[in-house]
Amino acid sequence: MAAPSSAAHKPRRKTKKTATYDAIAKPEALVRTPSFPLAAFLWPARGSVSQWEVLPLILMAVGLFRWAAGLWGYSGFQAPPMFGDFEAQRHWMEITTQLPISQWYFHDFEWWGLDYPPLTAYHSWLLGKIGAIIDPTWFELFASRGSHDPTLKIYMRATVIVSEYLIYIPAAVIFVRRYSRLFGVAPWTAWVALVAILMQPATILIDHIHFQYNTVMLGFVLSSMSSMLAGRHMWAAVFFVAALGFKQMALYYAPAVFAIIAIATVISFAILILPIVLGTLYDASRGIDSQPDLDGPHPPLPIFPQLAEYLDTNAIYYPVVEQLVQMVHRVFPFSRGLFEDKVANFWCAINVVIKMRKYPAVLLQRISLAATLAAIAPANFILLVRPRKQLLPYAFAATAWGFFMFSYQVHEKSALLPLLPMTVLLAGNQGLGKDIRAWVGFANLLGAWTMFPLLSRVDLKVPYAVLTLLWAYLLGLPPTSTSAYFQEGQSPWLQWSTAIVHGAFYLLMIVWHGLAQFVTPPADKPDLWVVANVGIGAAGFMLCYFWCLAKLVQESGILARNASQSPGGNKKTQ
Amino acid sequence: MTEIHPSLAQCAVVAAALKILLFPAYKSTDFEVHRNWLAITHSLPIWDWYYEKTSEWTLDYPPFFAYFECSMSQIARLVDPAMLRVYNLGYDSWQTVYFQRFSVIVSELVLLYALQMFIDSAHGTSRRAAQAAAISILLSPGLLIIDHIHFQYNGCMYGILIASLVLARHKSGLLVSGLVFAALLCMKHIYAYLAPAYFVFLLRTYCLSPRSIYKIQFFNCVKLGSGIAAILGLAFGPFALKGQIPQILSRLFPFSRGLCHAYWAPNVWAMYSFMDRLLITVAPRVGLSVNQEALKSVTRGLVGDTSFAVLPEVTPRMCFALTLLFQAIPLTKLFLWPTWDTFIGAVTLCGYASFLFGWHVHEKAILLVIIPFSLIALRDRRHLSAFRPLAVAGHVSLFPLLFTPAEFPIKTVYTIFWLMLFLVMFDRLAPASNRQRFFLFDRFSTLYIAISIPLIAYCSLVHGVVFGNRYEFLPLMFMSSYSAVGVVGSWLGFMGGVFHVIDNIRVVGQDCIEK
Lengths: 574, 515
Known about the structure:
Chain B: It comes from Apiospora rasikravindrae. By secondary structure, chain A is an all-alpha fold. Chain A has 2 domains: 79-182 and 213-332, no CATH class; 338-572. Chain A is 63% helix and 0% strand. Chain A has 25 helices and no strands. The longest helix of chain A has 33 residues, at 150-182. Chain B has 3 domains: 8-239, no CATH class; 260-313, no CATH class; 379-515, no CATH class. Chain B has helices spanning 8-21, 29-43, 63-79, 94-107, 109-121, 126-138, 141-151, 154-167, 174-185, 195-207, 218-241, 245-252, 268-286, 292-299, 316-336, 340-357, 367-376, 381-396, 408-429, 441-467, 473-498, 501-514. The chains are: A mainly alpha, B mainly alpha.
């Protein structure tokens, strides 16, 4: 492993680096050989290599995979009448650039009405304005619906990548650095973790292939987490509100965030909605109606109709109230069912046994609320009692898993939310050790697998297979390798149970792929494979939830006294 | 010897993932060319292969490649029989795309095997360098752009070339090396450009006695001669029996083409044409005569059949003479010092000479220079400093092959990634030369590399914004002239390395001073 011998020849530029290299190489030499391929790829970067050489290469490599993945089709490609997520995002660029601000949330709901919080709207507006410079026909009102101009596709793909490189990737780089320093993890290990995080298959599949801007929201969440690590609570709140304002799904993390910083969040939120409030007032003063299609008086408020009794509908503030209520109404679809498509969460899985739809919506809402609160309570309680920075990812992951499993109207893409904080664990203490690698890998592969029905609908099986297998290969996970199991120094009972449980799930996933590909389900159960996917996924996610919770308990040391008495008791929860 | 990380196979797996993701990318007419060849070789009797002309993309590779296509078509039949119909022009169902793209990836296993042979043939400290060089070839942006996006089977054939080069490293492999090269020639005749180096090397090391060049090893000559004859017979024999050789030759060597390809390959003739364009504006003032007819074609931009307005015309004969002349120089050295390193150097320089002075050279032919050069680029810093501008220029000159916006980020980012990774890594691995370096040569090469960034920005972005669709030839002309400077510069640097006359004097001088 020594540098090429230069005894015979004098190197022209005898850098000091070579001198330090050997000094560092000695202790590193004790660190065996790389235990999985990703570590092997970064192996030459150990030692003296500066981050300014490694980081650009990493960012270019992950960017290449993203762009290449983007060459494949997107959701709803040439699939009239409604197209898909791609059309939704394009349509929002159309309405935000073409309509006055007060009409954004009132415009035609049936055709992909704007149902994301205002930051998404502002983001769409900006991208729409820039895109219109290149080709104004992309975002013409009404006329552009369902456009599948190939250049538009390239533009939209580029906007996802640019947004990601401006928000998610800097956030990930900074977070990984701060979090790994917290544990005194070597920078080289942090690079490995960074690549693993940036190559997460589910994120690339959903954002760069299927098409969405989740990484913007996830990037804000990561920024918020790294601000918390740095102790900058104000910025943590600002970033968190930005995440929330970009996609309401960030609410999954909200309890964990509120457990730490409440007031700053409220103020940031006020700033976030300011443009839409001011815009509404401005439009109202100029007589621009928010619902120009209506002839008669405005309908009552869609939710909280009792508010109208206390308010003067002609007062100057009324349009603002109406606007905000409408926004909340759009963003939080309580009017829809407990779950929409087949999602690998608790409700959808239990639905196989007990048909949930026969119960009244209000009851379901209450049960779901109670279950969610019960699921997130332990993690947040621990965070309140032991607000230690090291615990953040565990707490975020456990809370988000709780929401994903039990809350109302969950989408399969929401699995990205718990996956992110779980994956960043790779940068932490023993992150690349077998235990964490096995569990993080399991969650990610399972997550990508539950998205398969969504992806196969638009014929994205090939990029799905490539990206998930690539990630599994890089991290040395099943089905490519079993190197992540049987760590030395762990109780054999625990090792075997982890290996067997994971092995069973991986086997099920492989068998499922075989069945879904080659066997048509029986005629009376056309959804059989999807339901099986949901059931297995929900069970696996439940395990991930318990693992995060157990690790949180273990790392927080809350049960330290108990644990010292009965070490097995703590581990049983795993 | 400890294992060096990452291994070649690991890189191949990750590269394959990227290549599969690139399946839906742009594909050039070469895709249809190869589909058509699949169809011809599958559905027609062998005697019609070189006569069939339903498609304009007639079979113009030697017979071994046709056999290769024929064997692939046996699998293609199971995938989608419709792609094997000769009249099915432009057919590209997704099965066809998957099959053809995948066949490129699979055929690249030959390259992988050859590179592993290369690594295994290196010992001691040079093993690390050999592994770096092998990975750089495996991940070459040239192969990615040409094979996996544009569409061709170069990876497989360069694999055969490398295998042949590596076999020549040991005395026991010389015969096989020569035979493998002969087989390669029967697969794609472009490698004939490198044949002189093989000829000289095998002549000197295999056919002549190592002690005296006047002693001929007759038994070796017979083995080599009969082996080559057998391979040629296998390839061309069936056709020769039917008297089809003239027809095949007319397909393989279409001499009716012009000096420069539609897009100028970055060689001496590109610089010559560029000078001509410049002189058109200067000539009236200096009193030179301008050929009005050529001027008309000049204003049309880059056309297949370039004619010069001010400078004298170039004939194929002149190209041939110049090529041979500049091949002769390294070959003389090879004859005198027949080591493996000189051999690879001579192969590289033969590639250089034919690329720089050849008639109707294609820009893809730059791989003929880059790939053999990669094998010895890490020998010392002198080699590396000549390799650096070549790596930049050679790969940048391939950019115009892909002109669609979707592939723009791939080709640029991938090439920058590759250049950054390997130039930094090579810099660490290359030992210092025991000779003085060229005065300021590497300063120039740094400047040269720096210029590429604004140039790419101009050609791909600024030009389109400022001029729209007008003067479309301008970016291409800049690109190829720029690349030509790099290729010629690196050639001069490498030739200088081979004939270090000045250096020897300097070294001797220094030794005297030190003493």
